[in-house]
Specification:
The protein is mainly beta. About 10% of the residues lie in helices and about 35% in strands. It is globular and about 95 Å long. Strand 40 (about 675-680) and strand 41 form a beta hairpin. Helix 2 (about 335-350) runs parallel beside helix 3 (about 365-375) and helix 4 (about 400-415) packs parallel to helix 5 (about 435-450). The termini are close together.
């Protein structure tokens, strides 16, 4: 949500130590002090923190270390440290704010946080993923004020994946006048949606915090406006009557919009709703304060049934989804807006139309990115309930905190048009108990009370022979999530024909069979693969391995030096794997042809796979030492047929249709050169060609950026991909060479990485060994200052014996910081 307060109140912050003022919220991510050692007086105003480390937020202290096999988080936590940390920040407060309502808002702190203002404990939050506020108004004083935060992630294990540690999302100061719209109360629903007419139903709560006004009722003017695509704008005025002693007033309004632009993955039209209130003259100490609360929303209608499947705005759609953890790859848990936007964009570019935020509420910036890019979201609350999966997980918090955390999830996120469902859990351990049915009903009821416009799901799983006994538990949900149980769906449909199903987790290798189940059965509305992107932790879940390596699955056993999952369709630096192109082709109708080569079994050793793994297949025609031996080339296509050529000579032609799983496999003796696959349409016309070439020796480093311009703010990132190429510009797919990233200008390298899941070097280093010919660096701008000219930023990557790579990014006006 966005908030506007009077200009006079905001102006006092302009000289303060803050990042930005966005719609009345003050981002205070810069100039914190941090330490992993502190005494009991750390929270007091006079405590000397001069020896503490200067840091800016978002901050994940765990990822700023090398990987270490002895860390207590172990294989689950990616072999990175956890522990305790302390933060302090000084802010300037003007006299005019004294006695006024004011909150400090944390988007996410992992975990067990306590918050202090000028030595007074004002709150905290144990769960590391839900956002929370603390009321600091009565403790603020004119002049210097100290915010202190303690974070405790020392009790291991508390997660089955990498969590990160610290204040890893944004922090805001939210000042108010005496009357304001209650945070998270502005709720927009769209009960009428069509291309001819849309109705926005607006509800919100007004808070009157004044203690000195007269005993007479007052009338408060309310202005509501909607703005949308193509310059659309409409405003209405109303008034609300506040009775003496009435501290909160709930209000509801409706606004009709003619010919609205509807939200969809193909055309994600976003509207903005603003509610402005102003206290009448003479009733308050500050007579001209106006507050405006703003939210974004979309006009869209979701329907689902076992008979018709999933419908958006009346049109049937198949859901092609990916599960995602919250981390941002080589940045760890640090939740920069640009990182969250890139994560959503990678999923969209990989052909997905949906994501599941497994297994926790995501960053607000990620949801805003899904709104803007057009990605459906299952918004998930937590991994488990009362029964523990790890010794110190959410089971320790459930009884006291489930209500608050579900409220935080739904109230914060319910205006996002991308969200199509709430998820209340994942593979709960107590699934066989009657209490599980009671808890599921309680959780689902809470979601529906706060938002009755979306269905509720959770991810059910069973490795037992008694799946059918979960029918009472399944009945608590509007859509039933099946983890790896899609083979039960058809028989379940015979037993419970009204049940709507989606597979909330699936093995990557089962892409074709899962597509057929979704395509052929309307009662199965979608599939979510585990996972969309490689993540830190659950180390080695998707690995392939060879004789002599540790045997079997990852299940909570040490697989050092593996430290990432390796099960994503996209690797940890953003490179798509062959399985990504295959899944994209299955679910999306655009004509496609893609080619990759299966690693010969025995080339590096006898190949073994895990359940979440896929056979090692790569975009490479570099197989030195394998000359003359057979090698398999896999071509996927939704054209009717494909041809394969070697050095211009036809090897063969094969059908690619459903009967072949849209694949053609060619076997030929390996020889260096060029292979090319050609797509043939139904008329026999050659339409598209894809090639793989044996590269020469590494010659140079070629750089790409995800953007040509970087904004001069301390939150702005650019992702720089380094590619090792030969003299002809071909990628050297087997190049593993040392690279050094440097930067010139007002920026810094904050992370480097590669797709290698066993490299023990921490991502915080500026040196990296390439993997499959690639490496990635993340550049962060240091921010501009008044009167200082913004200089271009130049990134250079070097390696002994290679021609260095260089790329220059221009700087532009600062991007608007993200706000709810």
């Amino acid at each position: 949500m966005k908030r506007i307060i009077s200009a006079s109140l905001l102006s006092v912050f302009l000289s303060s130590n803050v990042n930005a003022i966005t719609q009345g919220r003050i981002l205070i991510d810069s100039d914190w002090r941090f330490s992993t050692v502190a005494d009991s007086l750390f929270h007091t105003p006079d405590f000397n923190d001069s020896a503490w480390q200067p840091v800016s937020l978002p901050h994940d202290w765990s990822v700023l270390h090398d990987f270490n096999r002895d860390e207590p988080a172990g294989n689950d936590g990616g072999y990175l440290p956890t522990g305790k940390g302390w933060y302090r920040k000084t802010i300037d407060i003007p006299q005019s704010m004294a006695g006024k309502p004011c909150f400090i808002y944390f988007e996410g702190v992992y975990m067990n946080s306590e918050v202090f203002c000028n030595g007074h404990r004002v709150g905290g939050h144990p769960y590391g993923y839900t956002s929370f506020r603390c009321d600091i108004g009565k403790y603020l004083k004119p002049g210097k004020n100290v915010i202190a935060v303690s974070v405790d992630n020392s009790r291991q294990k508390n997660s089955r994946w990498y969590s990160g540690s610290g204040i890893y999302r944004h922090v805001w100061i939210e000042p108010h006048g005496q009357m304001y719209v209650k945070p998270w109360s502005l709720h927009v629903t769209t009960p009428v949606v069509s291309s001819e007419k849309g109705v926005a139903r607006i509800g919100f709560a007004m808070v009157d915090s004044s203690h000195d006004r007269s005993d007479s009722p007052i009338t408060v003017p309310v202005d509501i406006s909607i703005k949308g695509p193509d310059g659309y704008s409409r405003s209405v005025s109303d008034s609300v009557r506040i009775m003496p002693g009435e501290t909160m007033k709930y209000c509801n309004h409706e606004i009709s919009v003619s010919n609205p632009r509807l939200w969809s993955p193909e055309s994600p039209a976003i509207y903005t709703i603003s509610v402005s209130i102003q206290a009448p003259d003479g009733e308050y100490e500050t007579e001209t304060e106006t507050e405006t609360e703003t939210e974004t929303f979309g006009f869209r209608k979701i329907e689902y049934s076992a008979d018709k499947g999933f419908l958006l705005n009346g049109e049937k759609m198949m859901i092609n989804g990916a599960c995602l953890h919250h981390d941002n790859g080589i940045l760890g848990a640090a939740s920069y807006d640009d990182a969250e936007i890139r994560k959503a964009r990678l999923m969209k570019e990989a052909g997905f139309n949906a994501v599941r935020t497994s297994h926790n509420p995501p960053a607000p910036a990620f949801l805003s990115a899904c709104d803007s890019l057009g990605l459906f979201v299952i918004d998930e609350a937590f991994d488990g309930w009362k029964a523990a999966k790890t010794p110190h997980d959410y089971s320790e918090l459930y009884d006291e905190w489930w209500d608050s955390d579900v409220s935080s999830l739904v109230e914060r996120d319910r205006n996002h048009p991308s969200i199509i469902c709430w998820s209340i859990g994942n593979e709960i351990i107590e699934r066989k108990s009657p209490e599980a049915v009671r808890m599921a009903g309680e959780l689902a009821s809470k979601c529906r009370t706060l938002d009755n416009t979306r269905p509720v799901t959770s991810a059910l799983a069973s490795w037992d022979a008694d799946w059918e006994i979960y029918d009472p538990l399944a009945a608590c949900h509007d859509i039933v999530g099946y983890n790896y149980m899609i083979h039960k769906a058809e028989s379940d449909h015979q037993r419970v024909p009204s049940r709507t199903i989606w597979q909330t987790e699936s093995y990557p290798r089962d892409a074709f069979i899962n597509w057929t189940m979704v395509n052929d059965n309307p009662f199965i509305i979608g599939d979510f693969v585990w996972t969309g992107i490689d993540y830190i932790g659950e180390s080695g879940i998707g690995r392939h391995y060879y004789d002599g390596d540790p045997e079997g699955e990852h299940y909570h056993r040490p697989l050092w030096p593996w430290h990432n999952s390796c099960c994503g369709d996209v690797d940890i630096i953003g490179q798509r794997k062959p399985i990504s192109h295959y899944r994209d082709m299955l679910y999306n109708e655009a004509p496609k042809i893609y080619m990759a080569v299966r690693e010969p079994d025995g080339y590096k050793g006898k190949i073994k796979e895990t359940l979440w793994g896929t056979y090692p297949t790569v975009e490479s025609w570099n197989w030195p030492g394998h000359e003359g031996k057979p090698i398999e080339i896999e071509v996927i296509s939704n054209y009717p047929a494909v041809e394969l050529y070697k050095d211009g000579n036809l090897i063969g032609k094969k059908i690619t249709d459903r009967s072949t799983e849209f694949k053609a496999v060619f076997v030929l003796p390996y020889q260096a050169g060029e292979i090319s696959a050609v797509a043939i349409d139904s008329a026999g016309t050659r339409k598209e060609t894809t090639r793989l070439v044996t590269s020469g020796k590494p010659h140079a480093i070629r750089l790409y950026s995800d953007k040509p311009v970087i904004a001069p703010t301390s939150q702005s990132l650019a992702y720089i991909t380094a590619e090792i190429v030969d003299k002809k510009g071909n990628r050297v797919a087997d190049a593993e060479l040392p690279l050094k990233f440097t930067v010139e200008g007002d920026a810094e390298i904050i992370a480097t990485g590669s797709g290698n899941p066993t490299d023990p070097k921490g991502y915080f280093r500026n040196e990296r060994t390439s993997y499959s010919g690639y490496a990635l660096g993340v550049v962060k701008h240091k921010g501009s200052s008044a009167g200082k000219r913004n200089r271009p930023v130049t990134v250079k990557v070097s390696s002994p014996g290679l021609k260095n790579g260089s790329i220059t990014l221009e700087t532009d006006s600062p991007a608007t910081p993200h706000s709810l």
